[in-house]
Fold these 2 entries.
Entry 1:
Amino acid sequence: MNTEPVKLKLRATFHDTGDLLLRDIPCGGDTLLLCYIDSLTDKLLLEQDIISPLLAEGLSFCGCGEEDVREKLLAATAFCQDIAVLEFEDAVEKIAAGDAALYAGECDRFFMFSQRTAEKRSVAEPPTSTVLKGPREGFIEEIKTNTALIRRRIRSADLVFENLTVGRFSATPVTIAYVHGIADPAVVEKVREKLLAVDIDGVPDGAALVPYLEERSRSFFKQVGNTEKPDVAAAKLLEGRVAVITDGSPIVLTLPFLLLEDMQDGYDYYSGDWRAAFSRIFRVLGAALTVLLPAGYVALQSYHFHLLPIKFLVTLVGATSSIPFPPAVEMLFVLLLFEVLNEASMRMPRYLGVSLSIVGAIVLGDTAVKAGLISSPAVLVTALSSIGIFCVPDQVGTLSILRIVFLSASAVLGLFGMIAVLAVTLCYLASMQNYGAPYLAPYAPRISTDLKDGMLKAAGKDMTTRPLSFPNRNRTRQNNGDNV
């Protein structure tokens, strides 16, 4: 059989790329064409499981139909569990994804073998979610490993994985995960429709899908949950949420998302209930400190200094009397300086980032204070605000923007402006719906049963029902004889 026409067609389709390998394999009186991408296919497995058995068997495919060829290949390559039979267009997609293909001219079909390379990062503790107690496994960039980590924790036939492909050129595998009978079908369908409607060149990471999954595309408030821990993802699935797993990303997206989720942490469920409540309260206080402290400092210093204790006022005036800038400009300058230092330290190599942080925080800050450009109270307020922002690390971007907005309002209208912006922000958040879930639930609206896992955490045995804050089915989580 002459394989040259197929070779020419494949080379033209792949634009003569250098990593497309084409090899003729003689089988009896016939010749099969082996096609694969050099960097994506495991050549050792290909040689052991396909090429060597075919050469040893000496098969002949003369006069064989599609099913006969498939059966002979299955018998010869015993290590291959299944062989897909595809036409040219479909085979090209599989070859580009890393599968190997054998072309048989007798039936003009490609027979596909999954022999992809197994190179991947090992499962380890995720750097963004370190824990003192609990599982230390984290998702990696390989989608099959990630689905296996979830399946290991939910060993039920009701756990469903729906496979999609997103991206015209990247053809990125994306999986929708949910528990049948718990997740609301309307939410699953809505997520599916949004993903199927995505029409972009490529999906380099799961973060690229976030704008397409958000309900309010122009809002800077976070609307899609994310986690790197399989135990957290499994817990959210068992509550009725839907997970979106993207190949090449260690971050799993979850929907619907509530603001309260970022005030919770996986460690809360491995520590005492009172300790968990204590930690959650301090996370909220840290976020409030981040947003309100710089604005409150400027408002009190500019408009409401009579509210300060006289001794503190004297100290403050002594520290700021020689500063050439108004309080609002001074605070804005210090905030921007800290933001620049933070961005620089994050993008520098790790061993240089620590040095940069020390130089920026100590040397530059101390020099600026001594030079009379900024005051020491402004540096202290900004430092406390910057520390508080990391109490809720997933909200760093949102809190940074809110901090500037509140500072601007207090600079113009004082405490009245700060309170007005706070009221508008709370009203806006209370009006947000996320896949049928109120954004501020279970506090706005108040859902009494969900308060057991709110700011105050009840014992696990008392959480007998699944959350009512977002749509789900099968409200009973556990039966302990006390269900209402």
Entry 2:
Amino acid sequence: MTATAANLSHVLPLGSRVNARGRLEVGGCDLLELAREFGTPAYVVAEDDLRARARAFLDAVSARHRDYDVLFASKAFPCTAVYRLLAEEGLGCDVASGGELFLALRAGFDPARIYLHGNAKSEIELHEAVAAGVGYVVLDSASEIERLERVAAAQRTRQAVLVRVTPGVAGDTHHAISTGQADSKFGFSPHDAEAAIGRVSAAAHLDLVGLHCHIGSQLLELEPFVAAVRTIAALGDFPVYNVGGGLGVAYTDSQQPPAISEYVETLVAVVHRELRTDVRLLFEPGRALVANSTVTIYTVQSVKENVSTWVAVDGGMSDNLRPMLYGSTYEALLAGRPLAPASRRCHVAGKHCESGDVLIRDVPLADPAPGDVLAVPVTGAYGYSLANNYNGVLRAPVIFCREGTARAVVRRESYDDLAARDLE
């Protein structure tokens, strides 16, 4: 059995190490000390990991294509401090709601580099986006074309738009995060996209600049991306093409996703081959930017032996819903003895009143005991996003760590927060 820090180095945040006291450090901060200072559960984010991955995307694209932008797919980690850091690194932003737009603007993103997505945008959200001066709206349905035309006309402006095409390409991923198949709630089929392109081109207050496609999330093979570009290339010649995101990451020691440079090289090559070398090319990484930056820490509350060994922690489906939604798999290790060889396979269970509240099954651990701090890597994508208050559990803080200094950028909720929206 392998579950030591040495075996899991490629899923831990960049710069993680075992310190002289034999404990796991993230961003130069001892996880046991963080647990004592900030409590558990907590999302621990290595700032330098976020910055390094943002720079890796920018460097990979700029080395291969002249006219481009890299957009943070912010649904992955819609935290103001994360928005602000990635804006500082020079990224644009993809938002999928009025709330994400609010956060992106509050964090300092240039509205002109914000793209509004979503398959069911309300008229209010469209008004907010146009009034804010967002650069682009990605159109997802025929009725949305009509709504946005009304909104832009009411504000006496022209709004730049892209048409989202569902290319009929399904990557190898969970059905709930597959978006490019023919039977999808997202976008226009290639046939319907032709009609949509005609309608948008005739609209008085919409400026069609290009096409968008996105085929799914947590994809570990590159061929589906190539097939999607080939499909949209047949729909006409446009100045802008947004090839979406979806690049997968390593959640376990056995997963080996394509490198950022390999992913970019593959997509740029097919764009140059099937389209032109002078188009404006957009990428929308989310998970591949933020997932590996973060480790969630928990305190073990009990260890129970029956048919299996059950290790119960003080969080669960309130801070990481992905195992319950998608059957997602994770690794784990004990922060206080990360190099100790695993002695048994355990199920890591949450504290919620559901038998399905199991974070990890059959994970090898080194003699876990109540009071141990358990570290679960690769929780930067969709942990914070999907957090909830089931059983009245307080949502966890977000702790940024860099060069041994830790700071809370999102505080832990209080009981008063649970009632903050009550009217009586």
